Amino acid sequence: MRLKFPFTKKNNIEPVDIFIVLIILSFIYGLIRAGAGIGKEISYSPQIFLTASNLPFYAWLSILRQLAAFAISVVFSIVYGYIASHYKKAEAIMIPLLDVMQSIPLLSFLPIFVISLINIFPNERLGLELACILLIFTSQVWNMAFSVYGSMKAIPKEYNEVANIFNFNKFLKFFYVELPASMIGFVWNSMMSVAGGWFFLMASEMFVLGGKDFRLPGIGSYLQLAAIEGNTQAILMGLGTIIIIIVLIDQLIWRPLIAWAQKFKTELKEEEVPTSTLLVQLNRSKIIKVISNSWNNMIDGITIKQLKKKDAIPSLQTQKKQKFSFTSIIIYSLLILCVGYGSIMFFALTKNLKVDNWLNIVLADFFTLLRVVTAVFISLIWTVPLGVAIGLNKKLANKLEPIVQIFASIPATAVFPIIVMWLINSRGGINLASIVLMLLGTQWYILFNVIAGAQSIPTDLKEVSKIFKFRKLDKWRVLILPAIMPQLIIGLITATGGAWNASIVSEYVEFRGKIYNANGIGSLINIATSKGDYSLLAGSTLIMIITVVLINRYIWRKIYWKSIEHRV
Question: Please, are residues 469 and 553 in contact by the beta-carbon 8 Å criterion?
Fold first, then answer.
């Protein structure tokens, strides 16, 4: 299941090897250049210059923050999704917790990360940099974790039975069965996560907390300042820079990864596998050959050792019979104490809220709920047919995938001031503009998951539908919808959470010195954060969490399990 590169036996240096070395050297220089100011005394409001000459350096800083956040997200998602999908006791806690975490708006994490890290790293920019990376992490990780969990949970029983026949222990089963089965959905959700990181980059690099203006140099703060000043030229230059970055990332990272992920698609019938120009060039690289051979040899050695000691890792049945050890009791006790203390302190923040405050929060939550439902419903109408078309048609996919990636990665918050200018005088006003921004930020979660679900449909089943001459309606009812439904529900869960998060930037907008705000819980959270009103922030966050968890538990979760029972 591993990607192997066919290399020639020539000893001459390939041009692609020189290119790889230059990229590595450039990356090292970029790290040194970006890290030059990490240990310097912090300036909470450094001057951001809206000139074109500063854009390359600002863009590089934002790329590094995105990369660091994404690396943390990948590790967290795989570990979290694996544990939640394999242990029922852990699943009962971890999945509701994931619902809660994805429903917490990004601005609610601000006081925790910023205040804590600035106290740990006083008078240094490092604390604010780490806070920004963690904020981007919270905008990326949840749909990736849901994807790993959902994919591993939906693995057919036949795969597990084959793994048992070959005496695979948990490591081999994870590496050869579960991780490959999760890869297509994971790659597409990773694309969406990075796009979500761009969406919230502006809120992560420049924000107001307790009346103090925090800024970090980057493309996000550049666009935020340009939007506040109403500098349309700077906004267009910033968006143009982001589009160039997205195109490069698509060609250098995502297209090779999409082609690579198709290797893990289980087929009885041979099918043409998509490729990319970069992947073809990497096949000629001697540097990649050395790395690939070393990796394959290491994995083969580990596999042989694990097969020889098949009983080294206890089975699930053995683990169920084991009693809690003293160490486990201590760990669980400390965890319960920490969670209990944190919960008590959180609820203590809300003690100053009066009945009128709670009624205002609940009413604002209801208005936001209406906008969320409208945005998700509109998204659902067009993303499902387009996602299925892209997933089932390789020619169409090759044409539309880069375009979709570009549109998904453009931060809607950057163009939102322009949308406000167009819609503020319409009948819907800021309410309509808020729904449009929610739509721009959340529809991609559904589209990318539908594409991943459609691409995962085995070719054998598609051939069977042709043999039986299914009509379009029957094909959708019998094959397509049951096959994509688990991924679709994951997309709806993350899209709903993303819409609630998007409310914090769609219901409260500052443009050309004016503030436009809609009646909603996102607007309340924005006001509470800027004023440092932690009681209002805690109360609003609590009501939003309760709403999202109830929706996920009593609507999406039930539909998801039914879709698993009737999957193809």
Answer: no
Closest CA to 539 of 384, 340, 360: 360
C-alpha to C-alpha distance for 473 and 464, rounded to whole angstroms? 15
Helix or strand run (H / E) with residue 364: helix 355-392
| C-alpha–C-alpha distance, residues 129 and 137, integer Å | 12
* Helices 55-86, 232-249: crossing angle, 10 deg rounding: 50
> Does the structure show a pLDDT above 90 at 435?
no
Q: Judging by beta carbons within 10 Å of its beta carbon (0-12, 13-18, 19+), is residue 538 exposed, middle or buried? A: buried
Q: What is the pLDDT of residue 320?
A: 43
| DSSP E strand boundaries for 145-274 | 206-209, 212-215
Task: CATH number of the domain at 493, please.
Answer: 1.10.3720.10
Residue 37: Cβ-neighbour burial (10 angstroms; 0-12, 13-18, 19+): middle
Is 17 within a domain? Answer: no
Q: Which domain holds residue 195?
A: 41-275+352-565
Residue 204 CB: number of other CB atoms within 10 A?
30
Over the stretch 505-545, which tens digit does the pLDDT of each residue have?
A: 788 777 666 777 788 888 888 888 777 777 888 888 888 88
Provide the number of structural domains found in the chain. 1
Q: Tell me, what amino acid is at 369?
A: L
d(Cα 514, Cα 510) in Å, to the nearest integer?
Answer: 6
Q: What 8-state DSSP symbol labels residue 425?
A: T
The answer to the question of residue 310 being in a domain is: no
With respect to residue 258, please indicate whether it lies within any of the assigned structural domains: yes
Q: 388-414: b or e for each residue (b if 16 or more CB lie within 10 Å)?
A: bebbeeeeebeeebbebbbbbbbbbbb
pLDDT in tens, 23-67: 666 656 565 555 555 545 555 556 788 888 888 888 888 898 989
Q: Report if residue 422 sits inside a domain.
A: yes
Mind listing the pLDDT tens digit for each residue in 338-379?
A: 767 666 776 777 777 888 888 999 999 999 999 999 999 999
What pLDDT, on a 0 to 100 scale, did the predictor assign at position 101? 77
